[in-house]
Amino acid sequence: MLDFRGLRLRMALFMERLTSRNEKLLPQLIGDWKWQAPPWMSWLGRKGSQFHRHLNADPRRAVAFVVTLAILLVGIVWYWNRPTPHYVVYTVESPALTTWDEKGIKKIFPMQVDFTESAAPLKYVQKQVTEGIELSPAIDGSWFWTTDRQLMFTPKEDWPIGASFTVKMSRRGFVDQSVRLENYRFDFSTAPFTAKITESFFYQDPVDPNLKKLVASVGFSHPVDKMQFEQHISLSLAKDAQYLGLEPDSLFFTVVYDKFDLGAHIHSAALAMPRDDTPMTVKIDKGVRAQRGGNDTPEALQAVVNIPGRSSLRFHHGQTMASSVCARFGTRPSRASICAKSRWPSTCAVMSAPKRSILPLALPASKNCSLNPSRLPINPMPSIFGPVRCRLDSTT
Q: Does domain 90-189 have CATH number 2.40.50?
């Protein structure tokens, strides 16, 4: 029988000797301290004493305890060192965002599972599967083994917006009997609802120069809830905007949607020309959602458009002008420069401002040879000469 009492006495004697030798050194290092054991240690000590007395009462109990402990240790060692089975690995590809065209929904993308090895039973290859797999929450659709390594689920209608699904595969019958999977369950999610401002600019009607407004375009991943979206739109002006000529009525707006509510165009009310350049902000608060529900947009969207003042004239906000060759019937081709203006200047000012210079493709071969601009054709072609540089005087 194991002598637990003698072992405990020897340990107590060793600790007593160690403490007596260092009773003068320890206070100098760590100071005097008192420690009281927590209640759980006292309880554990009492239970340990009771168990010890229980084993000492019958030698067979002590032997059975030692054998049980040895078997447990051997089982743990075997579990951690057992040979790893060969598992077939698979990857899950969540469905992509549904595409649209001028007729409506163009394509609904399936959820796809790709296996690294052949996994489908031969009787199911390139066939629809009706048993052995479960989708939760359930929606109408079909499972199909496109190949022995690829499984797809295609819904009957468009995927729910921003939804999470769980798929459970049966351990018997769904995959080939020689195939083992480490996990017969997986999760996937569908595309969430998103919105972004794709374009924002100051617009001046080419026919009526007095009609000026801010225009902002917003794109959506799914058809938007129009009424709820318009409640999240706001226009704001600078603090001194009214002093500069913009009235509070400028904060009114209208929204025009495309055919399937996948895009919205925000038009401000007609703007008066302020005295100086004034920023105007269009903001869309977070919380916009789609017609079919789903998630709300998590962040606010914002765009700032500069409303040009009466004393400023800008050509497409400082960007370069576009140049093209225009072919007229019965005449030689001519070059045309196109630019966008922030307001409508006088015709005389525009006609007198441009200055044109023609650059050759290469420098003359000799330093003594010069290129006489007066001998150049009026409408040179780009295959003969280089680019045409056009400059507008700043006094326009």
A: no
Summarize pLDDT for 314-364 with one digit per residue, the tens: 654 444 455 666 665 556 676 666 666 555 555 555 555 566 655 555 555
Containing H/E element for 307?
strand 301-307
Digit-coded pLDDT (tens) for 148-203: 999 999 999 999 999 999 999 999 889 998 899 999 999 999 999 999 999 999 99
Q: How far apart are the first and last CA of the chain?
A: 112
The CATH-assigned architecture of domain 195-307 is: Sandwich (2.60)
Q: Which residues contact 257 (CB under 8 A, 6 or more apart)?
A: 224, 226, 263, 264, 265
Backbone angles phi, psi at 25, to 5 degrees: -80, -40
User: Rounded to an integer, what distance in angstroms lies between the CA atom of residue 271 and that of residue 204?
Assistant: 10
Under 8 Å between Cβ of 281 and 236: yes
**Selection from 178, 92, 180, 172 nearest residue 135 by Cα:** 92
Please report the DSSP string for 161-183 in residue order: TT-EEEEEE-SSSSS-TT---S-
The token pair that represents 178 in the structure block: 């020689």
Q: Name the 3-class secondary structure at 116.
A: coil
pTM for this entry: 0.63
Residue 80 has pLDDT above 70, yes or no: yes
The pLDDT value recorded for residue 190 is: 95
Note whether 265 and 216 are within 8 A (CB).
yes
- HSE-CB at 243 with a 13 A cutoff on CA atoms is 3
Do 90-189 and 195-307 have matching folds?
yes
SS3 category, 385: coil
